[in-house]
Specification:
Largest sheet of chain A: 7 strands, mixed
Mean pLDDT of chain A: 72
Structural class of chain A: alpha/beta
Shape of chain A: globular
CATH class of the largest domain in chain A: Alpha Beta
Distance between the termini of chain A: 46 Å
Strand order of the largest sheet of chain A: 3-4-5-6-2-1-7
CATH architecture of the largest domain in chain A: 3-Layer(aba) Sandwich
Radius of gyration of chain B: 26 Å
CATH class of one domain in chain B: Alpha Beta
Shape of chain B: globular
CATH architecture of one domain in chain B: 3-Layer(bba) Sandwich
Number of strands of chain A: 14
Oligomer: heterodimer
Chain lengths: 488, 659
């Protein structure tokens, strides 16, 4: 039946659970790559998944093996499934963040976004739905197409399609250059060999633009779904104080949710219009009544799910082995803010020393140093008890908020662009286009002939075209004939 | 109407002996059909009224495919070329494109001789004035069924299902023969219409125009009129050709010489070697002085003066187009191509025009080396009638008129190679149709011929269509070097490719595969590989490496690898080349083959011919109308129609399933 498709099959909104459905011959392979069973491992590892058995486990990031969510997954072997193909369904905790991320991972592993009504269409084509229902299937395809067309149109009228068009325009230029040189070689056979082929810089520019849009896509997702921020650190560094200060500063609602699987305390902040869900990991440990230094290990899953981490250090005590242990276990890819706390007390280490804790090679640039220091309190010993809290109540928390916003919106987005890419489908298309462009750059850089790279450039061009509903191949030739003087 | 007597009956009659008609007639006769080939003038057989060359980008691939299937063009150009070059040699093998300068007159003579000697083929001079039809199912003979269509029945644009199915005026008809201008009628079970640029053609020079076929041959005026009367909708296309000058009047010292290749790759897979280059071509440039002549007189050219309205090709700009559209360019390139070894005539490539003749002289003589050019023929534009190829099935059959096939320029194409390719397919399918066999329709993923025909019948064309490598989405596998491997088995199966051809194809395949396996298995140590690699500027290896792995490196050619490959067997150059390309570009080729698999999934889903699109409520109106007009054979073809969306294809899938 062709490609393996994936989509969220529950209604959009804040449901209790959400389901990602994957259908097609690669469904098992995709599930296997993203799903780590916590029980019944043996069954899953031996010759595929058991048919129609609910399995409990984690969805892992394919690149880092970090946990995305705790899920139930079920695999249904063809033909006894809704579509009549191999189907995998993943039930996650709902809420748009894990749902979207799981869908994205399925795309990264080779699934393609399902077309409107496609599950039902496949069910029909595979004889899983009665012939009488053919009309209903057609209506469904039509209705869903209309709806997504309207949604696409809204976006098309915005800046997204303008920017996609700009990237496509660049790619069209590359295609025209390649085409003209291949199909009209004699027009370029100037004396002395002529000028070098112009493709590479043009492609790199298009790749950068697609990359910027992708960064935007990540930010777009965060804007839509909320940023997850986690406060981490060893005990007694003032995490809860920080949490409370943040909560008060933003006049946010503190929700105490003991007894759920998360066992965490979350607050919902609004930072520059972006919802931020701040989780205090200290809440877990203290609720569990444990005094020992489980610290970050205990809070690992919360940390892994977070988009950004606030790593809190006690500035009044020398850095300890425990601080170093936590620092060493941090994910270099994750945006991290180092918060040196209790700067109202005589400092036991300087900021450089704190920064040196985080020695991840690539991540250091992504990490900023937030230092809470109140000059008035640094002199003398006054206000030891209240000064710290007071600091947060004034500009301290605001600065931290600014820092969070700065970490979330990097690059093009923070430079004042609006957030455009909010759909997983669009992100999948952009990612594919960017990869195709990068492959084309590699091919040309290696010195291989342009017609090899052209395959990738055209794929990128078509993918972006589909995204904004423009797919005409003839326009390459139109461009060639417009720009080049060619004739016999 | 035919009352001057009836000639003998034929299985297949081919109208027109240009590049399409010749291939069609030969294919039909070779497939055992009694075939009549009619032409206005026997001296215009396989005439090249424009460029004296065959091949080029995309076109060279077409010629090799025609040859691989058992057609004639490749063999004849190998016999009659006077210079040969492989274009795009600096690029990868997928776009290597052979092109040869033809000895124009000898090509004509060789084709004429081939036709005359072909068993089962009658070659005759005669101008067809009318196609003869009868209503489908009406058993009456030629005399009574002739020309039953009337113009008012021709209603192509109306949304009626019947009109679209029948193609002509609501009634399904079948072809029963042709009537000549002389009055004689010839009955036939199938007709291939390959009238070229002769149908109602007019030549334009400045503000003058007159009825004429290309190169001064007579136009087919009556046929054009009778076809319109029978309900065919004809369109008007335009093209042009530059002047010819005498070589003795040119100063080649002031031009750049362009020699042929030292090592010539033959067009035909039956030839291991081709002959030698006999001439050079010459390159020179226009200058602002010449552009000024054109610009000052642009109103005197046919299109800018408003004397022509036909649609010309964008890829074949006249000098007036070049000057007016690219005014910033200080010079335009032109090639001087000798037309043969028995003539002084030289073709001026790149400089077609419809300026008045004295101004043509004034302009051309501003070009370095052409100051004293003597003119033997002046440039002109030509307008002609052609059909909308969207009226055709992928077999090149005209929908609604059974037994009628169309090929070449009449289908809106331009180029000898495009014409020959269509002629071959139309001839094959006319013959197969009579035997009740499935038509031969190569796919886009199999051949440039498939790309050409699918583009025509699915997308149509608004200007004379020229093949280009960029039109072939799978061009990495549709190469000139493997056309035999791709198509000769099919040609053999059809009964067109000979035993010898098939044997050569299989021998090449086996030798290439054996050599590839050997290269993959044979390993050399770093001590052997590294001196070679350092000499070629490549990074050294450690341990051992297979010869195939070395060959994948851009800097290592099969030839260079010979230095450390003493066990290399003696195999043909063609097999060697095949092994080298297949190993060197394996990654790209594999990727393309995956794309092809995906492409085939939709392509293999046939749409029942009886489907009534106009009543399919689930389709948008535009999709219904387009599908009804083009009547695609498969879902893949349907998906390529502009205005048919992916959702429409989804709906179609459901509809087909529930039929």
């Amino acid at each position: 039946m062709g490609e393996t498709i994936a989509a969220v099959s529950t209604a959009p909104g804040e449901g209790g659970i959400g389901i990602v459905r994957i259908s097609g011959e690669n469904a098992a392979r995709i599930l296997e790559k993203m799903f780590a069973p916590l029980r019944g491992k043996a069954a899953a590892n031996q010759g595929g998944f058991p048919d129609k058995k609910m399995m409990y486990g984690h969805i892992k990031e394919p690149s880092s093996a970090q946990t995305v969510d705790e899920v139930l997954a079920v695999f249904m072997k063809a033909p006894h499934s809704y579509t009549g193909e191999d189907v995998a369904e993943i039930q996650c905790h709902g809420g748009p963040v894990p749902l979207r991320r799981i869908l994205e991972i399925s795309y990264e592993l080779g699934a393609v976004p399902a077309a409107p009504g496609e599950f039902t269409k496949r069910a029909f084509l595979n004889g899983r739905i009665d012939l009488v229902q053919a009309g209903a299937v057609i209506d469904l395809i039509r209705a869903k197409t209309e709806r997504s067309y309207r949604a696409a149109k809204d976006q098309a009228e915005g800046k997204l399609s303008a920017r996609i068009r700009a990237v496509r325009g660049g790619l069209l230029g590359v295609l025209a250059e390649i085409t003209a040189r291949i199909d009209y070689p004699e027009a370029f056979e100037e004396e002395g060999g002529g000028t070098p082929d112009p493709y590479l810089p043009m492609l790199k520019k298009a790749g950068d633009e697609a990359g910027a849009l992708l960064a935007d896509a990540d930010a777009g997702r965060l804007v839509r779904d909320g940023v997850r921020a986690a406060i981490i650190g060893k005990p007694n560094t003032g995490k809860s104080s920080l949490f409370n200060a943040m909560a008060r500063e933003s006049a946010a609602i503190v929700t105490d949710i003991p007894g759920t699987t998360r066992d965490a305390i979350e607050i919902f902040l609004n930072i520059s219009g972006v919802p931020v869900i701040l989780t205090d990991t200290a809440g877990i440990r203290e609720a569990a009544g444990e005094v020992e230094t489980l610290g970050i290990r205990k809070s690992r899953s919360i940390y892994e799910r977070a988009d950004i981490a606030l790593f809190v250090l006690d500035g009044s005590l020398p850095l300890s082995a425990e601080d170093r242990e936590i620092a060493a276990s941090l994910n270099p890819e994750k945006k991290t803010i180092l918060v040196v706390n209790k700067r109202d007390l005589p400092p036991a280490f300087d900021l450089e020393e704190a920064a040196a804790l985080l020695s991840f090679p690539a991540g250091i640039a992504e990490t900023s140093l937030f230092s809470r220091s109140l000059p008035s309190l640094e002199e003398g010993n006054g206000g030891a008890a209240t000064g710290f809290e007071a600091g947060f109540e004034t500009d301290g928390a605001a600065e931290l908020e600014k820092e969070i916003a700065g970490r979330v919106f990097t690059g093009a987005v923070s430079a004042g662009g609006s957030l455009l890419v909010t759909k997983a489908r669009h992100k999948a298309a952009l990612l594919q286009a960017k990869e195709e462009i990068e492959e084309a750059v590699r091919i040309l850089s290696r010195g291989d002939a342009p017609e090899f790279a052209e395959v990738n450039v055209r794929a990128a061009y078509d993918t972006l075209g589909e995204m904004i509903g423009e797919t005409v191949t003839e326009d390459i030739l139109d461009r060639v004939f417009e720009e080049f003087c060619i004739g016999k | 109407m035919g009352n001057s007597g009836t000639g003998e009956a034929y299985d297949v009659i081919v109208v027109g002996a240009g590049h399409a008609g010749c291939e069609a007639a030969l294919a039909s006769a070779r497939l055992g059909k009694r075939t009549l080939l009619l032409t206005i003038n026997l001296d215009s057989i396989a005439h090249m009224p424009c460029n004296p060359s065959i091949g080029g980008t995309g076109k060279g691939q077409l010629v090799k495919e025609i040859d691989a299937l058992g057609g004639e063009m490749g063999l004849l150009i190998d016999k009659t070329f006077i210079q040969s070059r492989m274009l795009n040699r600096s690029k990868g093998p997928a776009v290597h494109s052979p092109r040869a300068q033809a000895d124009k007159m000898r090509y004509h003579i060789e084709m004429k001789r081939t036709l005359e000697r072909q068993e089962g083929l009658h070659l005759r001079q005669g101008e067809v004035a009318e196609l003869l039809f009868e209503d489908e199912g009406d058993g009456s003979g030629v005399g009574s069924g002739v020309g039953s269509g009337t113009p008012d029945e021709a209603d192509f644009s109306a949304g009626s299902v019947n009109a679209a199915v029948s193609g002509l005026g609501g009634k399904a008809r079948k072809i029963v023969g042709v009537r000549l201008k002389s009055g004689t009628s010839y009955p036939a079970a199938a007709v291939v219409l390959a009238a070229g640029a002769y149908l109602g053609s007019r030549i334009f020079v400045s503000d003058r125009s007159f009825a004429s076929g290309p190169g001064g041959f007579a136009p087919a005026v009556e046929l054009s009129e009778s076809m319109k009367a029978a309900g065919f909708v004809l369109r008007r296309f335009k093209t042009g050709t530059p002047a010819r000058v005498l070589a003795s009047s040119l100063d080649y010292e002031k031009m750049q010489e362009q020699k042929g290749d030292e090592k010539i790759v033959p067009f035909s897979f039956l030839n291991d070697e081709a002959g030698e280059n006999k001439i050079s071509c010459w390159l020179t440039y226009t200058n602002p002085r010449g552009h000024a002549v054109v610009a000052e007189n642009i109103e005197k050219t046919a299109p800018y003066g408003g004397y022509t309205t036909g649609v010309g090709p964008r890829y074949c700009l006249s000098i007036e187009d070049k000057v007016s559209r690219f005014p910033e360019r200080e010079r335009h390139q032109l090639f001087l191509e000798p037309e043969g070894t028995d003539t002084e005539e030289v073709y001026i490539q790149g400089m077609s025009t419809s300026l008045p003749e004295p101004l043509q002289e004034a302009f051309y003589r501003t070009i370095p080396g052409m100051e004293r050019a003597e003119f033997s023929r002046y440039a002109y534009s030509i307008e002609y009638d052609c059909l909308d190829p969207q009226r055709l099935t992928p077999a090149l059959a005209y929908r609604g008129v059974s037994g009628l096939f169309c090929a070449g320029q009449i289908n809106g194409t331009s180029g000898y190679e495009e014409a020959a390719a269509q002629g071959l397919v139309a001839g094959i399918n006319a013959a197969r149709g009579l035997d009740g066999k499935e038509p031969f329709v190569p796919g886009r993923e199999e051949a440039y011929i498939g790309v050409l025909i699918d583009d025509l019948v699915t997308k149509g064309t608004d200007e004379p269509y020229r093949i280009m490598t960029s039109r072939a989405e799978f061009r990495l596998v549709l190469r000139q070097d493997n056309a035999d491997l791709r198509l000769t088995p099919a040609g053999y199966e059809l009964g067109l490719a000979s035993e010898l051809r098939m044997e050569r194809c299989l021998a090449k395949k086996t030798a290439a595969e054996t050599e590839m396996a050997r290269l993959r298995a044979a390993r050399v140590g770093a001590a052997q590989a590294n001196p070679l690699l350092s000499g070629l500027g490549g990074a050294p290896v450690s341990g051992t490496i297979s010869l195939a792995e070395l060959l994948v490196r851009p800097e290592v050619s099969y030839e260079a690898l010979g230095a450390i490959d003493p066990a290399r067997p003696m195999i043909s150059a063609a097999a060697r080349e095949q092994a080298e390309i297949e190993i060197k570009y394996a990654g790209y080729i594999e990727k393309q083959k995956k794309q092809i698999d995906k492409f085939r999934r939709l392509e293999s889903k046939q749409i029942p011919p009886s489907i009534d699109y106009l009543s399919l409520e689930g389709l948008r109106l535009e999709a219904r109308q387009k599908l009804n007009a083009i009547r695609p054979a498969s879902l893949g073809q349907a998906a390529r129609i502009s205005g048919v969306s992916p959702a429409d294809i989804s709906v179609l899938m459901v509809v087909i399933k529930s039929l």
